[in-house]
């Protein structure tokens, strides 16, 4: 038996969706590049620059995890996805763009108590996204978030 500790990795966020065609169209409209198109509408993968967003039919995802499909929550799920930006102008532009692609505005962009600036939108399945610029957190040309030590 090996005593070597596995290397932790956060690689994919899989979102359960009600209408995979509509969700694929939404994430493509946001500008995420779809990969592995051969999967058709069974599952959709999008390159985000560091991790991957996967879209999977909600009922099948629940079944795969051995969880009940119903009731589906219509309230906050305790999780947000984040779109980090480098300026307040970029936050405003990204939030406006997401809304133009079919997102629902949850909270307009505003100054935060920690010195940042953020707003929230929901995708077509009510997955919550924060669009934010935060002090000391930068997004590089590689689209990855760079955190200070």
Outline of the structure:
The chain is α+β, with helices and mostly antiparallel strands.
Q: What can you tell me about this protein's structure?
A:
With 149 residues, the chain is α+β, with helices and mostly antiparallel strands. The protein has three helices and ten strands, in the order βαβββαβαβββββ. It folds into two domains: 62 residues, Roll (2,3-Dihydroxybiphenyl 1,2-Dioxygenase, domain 1); 62 residues, 2,3-Dihydroxybiphenyl 1,2-Dioxygenase, domain 1, CATH 3.10.180.10. The strands form three sheets. The chain has a four-stranded mixed sheet with strand order 1-4-3-2. Strands 5-8-7-6 form a four-stranded mixed sheet, covered by helices on one side. Strands 9-10 form a two-stranded antiparallel sheet. Strand 3 and strand 4 form a beta hairpin. The longest helix is centred in the middle third of the chain and has 13 residues. The radius of gyration is 17 Å and the shape is globular.
Q: What is the CATH superfamily of the largest domain?
A: 2,3-Dihydroxybiphenyl 1,2-Dioxygenase, domain 1
Number of domains: 2
- What percentage of amino acids are in beta strands? 25-35%
Give the CA-based shape: globular
CATH topology of the largest domain: 2,3-Dihydroxybiphenyl 1,2-Dioxygenase, domain 1
- Low-confidence stretches are none
Backbone CA Rg = 17 Å
Q: Give the terminus-to-terminus CA distance.
A: 35 Å
From N to C, what is the helix and strand string?
EHEEEHEHEEEEE
How many DSSP-defined strands? Answer: 10
Major sheet:
4 strands, mixed
Count helical runs: 3
SSE class: alpha+beta
Strand order of the largest sheet: 1-4-3-2
CATH architecture of the largest domain: Roll
Helix percent band: 10-25%
CATH class of the largest domain: Alpha Beta
Mean pLDDT: 92
